[in-house]
């Protein structure tokens, strides 16, 4: 004898199945959250580092991951960085999040099997070894040159000074990217701040814009005066490294939305917490671009910046 269930009873049974599945999903997520302990290692106390951490924590909250956070402000100390990693290991940390080069290099060296998500690292390729991933500091060469073309459409030759010991691979990729966009990248090598001056002089007649790259040896607060004097004397605009460079006299700079960059790291962390291997997530670049302009510099260099670009800048110095 075959018993036929009423439509109403079938509907109730289906609803019960859905309820059980949802309950199991919620319970599994709670179980993950209860076991999740994250060490937050910040190399410095500067505002961008704090914004990254804030964006990271907000991202995890949106994903429903209620982790325990252990914060370690390193204040530039390698000893504190090493102590923080060892303490994180003793606590059974699930994941280490590093902000800045010091924290990242120490964690990669000493964290063992604990997965790492890093931010504000100059070269994402450094994260391709070990159990690490993250979001680098720089935008891709393609992104940087596309913005250069928007802001300086008549500049077809781009000069760059680089340290071959640190940036050879990056410059090789940038040369290809420039060529694909119809630009010519004119490169000069320098390994010390003292060599930077002569390298810049050799670019004066061959380039229409100077592209500053992330390299603490050649482009730093200590060398900014040398770079900007070269720009003003030769009427060659500088595509700077950050808003602080623009404030000092660079024509413009792409900058990061640090809150969103933290959210990018949070999304990576969410996948790792759910079981994805960190080294299976390719290191990436910031996905959101903001920029600053210096109109006083533009006037001195006799450059016209289109009004929509001025209106779109995050910060304008006049």
Provide an overview of this structure:
By secondary structure, this protein is of the alpha/beta class. The chain has 2 domains: 34-137 and 257-288, Rossmann fold; 141-256 and 290-317, Rossmann fold, CATH 3.40.50. It contains 12 helices and 12 strands. The strands form 2 sheets. It has a 7-stranded mixed β-sheet, sandwiched between helices. It has a 5-stranded parallel β-sheet with strand order 2-1-3-4-5, sandwiched between helices. α8 links the parallel β8 and β9 (238-240). α2 crosses α10 (258-273) and α3 (78-90) packs across α4.
Secondary structure elements and pairings:
Layout: H1 7-34, E1 37-42, H2 47-62, E2 68-73, H3 78-90, E3 95-99, H4 101-110, E4 116-121, E5 132-136, H5 141-151, E6 157-162, H6 164-180, E7 184-189, H7 193-201, E8 209-211, H8 224-234, E9 238-240, H9 243-248, E10 252-256, H10 258-273, E11 289-294, H11 295-300, H12 307-312, E12 315-317
Parallel strand pairs: 1-2, 1-3, 3-4, 4-5, 6-7, 6-8, 8-9, 9-10, 11-12
Antiparallel strand pairs: 10-11
> Helix amount, in percent?
40-55%
Shape: elongated
Compute the number of strand runs. Answer: 12
- Level-1 CATH class name of the largest domain: Alpha Beta
User: What radius of gyration results from the CA coordinates?
Assistant: 25 Å
Structural class call reads: alpha/beta
Distance between the termini: 89 Å
Strand order of the largest sheet: 7-6-8-9-10-11-12
Q: What's the story with the biggest beta sheet?
A: 7 strands, mixed
In DSSP terms (H or I, runs of 4 or more residues), the helix count works out at: 12
The total tally of domains equals 2
- CATH architecture level-2 label of the largest domain: 3-Layer(aba) Sandwich
Return the CATH topology of the largest domain. Rossmann fold
